[in-house]
Automatic annotation (TrEMBL):
This is Exonuclease domain-containing protein. Keywords: Exonuclease, Hydrolase, Nuclease. The keyword Signal does not apply. Residues 2-184 form the Exonuclease domain. One of its GO terms (molecular function) is 3'-5'-RNA exonuclease activity.
Length: 295
């Protein structure tokens, strides 16, 4: 089995023809790895924009790609797509997060009218795989590619990031460092109808306590100092898409606000918790009563 790790660079633009914003692909970069995860072939192609004649200034600054380079390549999306299909073959397509595969689907639909990629048989979200393999547990923030590389001690040039081939190569290095054959099987998706429902599902925060997908048994907090279960002292309230309530640790006499967020994903709910210290009123009074010193 061969693994094809793809990275895309794209330009956000408005399509007057379709009356909507489109993330138009301007660069493909990919590496093909054998079963020992050795890079055996590379793919790197610029794409001449067909929707917009200008590059977003942020994209230009980030990638250092110029509109002149893209025009000189004279590569249409369909031309590069045809070459990439052959490069992919029957291999497993992999990307860092699912954003690139969503952009690929978006462009394929725009130019071909098909919202599925008929040439893609298997897919892996390497961001999710690496998070699991490395033991990354921050549900509130996804693991970035450069952060993952730093955690693994993989060296890279900061100014080489945000070019498709370089990012694909760095992703391959992270994958190789964290390779676990059995674990990987859990992250390989067959690209059937269920896969497209999954990848197109947009996660959202649950903001109704009566939602049946909320597990009320998760709505507790332990004291961060002693580890004991804290006592809830107020009703739950919704603020900034998180449910909040005041808590007190009876042992430590510590007051804090507990904040819990429920994010609905395709087949599960992610729960993340944070706390914020509440300053007690008697402490505030003591501070205000202290005499001010003069120099």
């Amino acid at each position: 089995m061969e693994y094809i790790i793809l990275d895309l660079e794209f330009n956000g633009t408005y399509s007057k023809h379709r009356h909507k914003f489109v993330n138009e692909i301007i660069e493909f970069g990919a590496v093909k790895c054998d079963e020992q995860l050795n890079i055996i072939e590379i793919f790197s192609e610029l794409v001449k924009p067909q929707i917009s004649k200008k590059l977003n200034s942020h994209v230009s600054a980030l990638t250092h790609i110029t509109i002149d380079e893209l025009k000189k390549s004279n590569n249409s999306f369909s031309h590069v797509m045809s070459k990439f299909r052959k490069f992919l073959g029957d291999g497993v397509l992999m990307t860092w997060s699912n954003s690139d595969v969503l952009v690929l689907i978006e462009n394929y639909k725009y130019f071909y009218g098909n919202d599925k990629l008929p040439f893609m048989k298997y897919y892996v979200n390497l961001q999710k795989y690496c998070e699991r393999a490395i033991g990354y547990s921050d549900k509130a923030r996804q693991l970035g590619l450069s952060a993952c590389a730093e955690m693994l001690g993989i060296t890279f040039e900061e100014n080489s990031l945000h070019r498709a081939y370089n990012d694909a190569e760095l992703t391959a290095a992270c994958f190789k460092a964290l390779y676990d054959k059995e674990l990987l099987q859990q992250y390989i998706y067959t690209c059937d109808d269920d896969f497209y429902r999954r990848v197109n599902f947009k996660n959202y925060n649950i903001c109704d306590l009566k939602n049946p997908n909320i597990n009320r048994h998760e709505m507790y907090f332990n004291c961060e100092k002693c580890g004991r279960r804290a006592l809830r002292r107020s009703k739950w309230r919704l603020k900034n898409r998180s449910f909040r309530a005041n808590f007190r640790c009876l042992r430590c006499r510590r007051d804090f606000e507990g904040r819990i967020t429920f994010k609905q994903c395709y087949d599960h709910v992610n729960v993340s918790k944070k706390t914020a210290e509440i300053e007690r009123k008697d402490k505030k009074k003591r501070k205000s009563a202290e005499p001010k010193t003069t120099s």
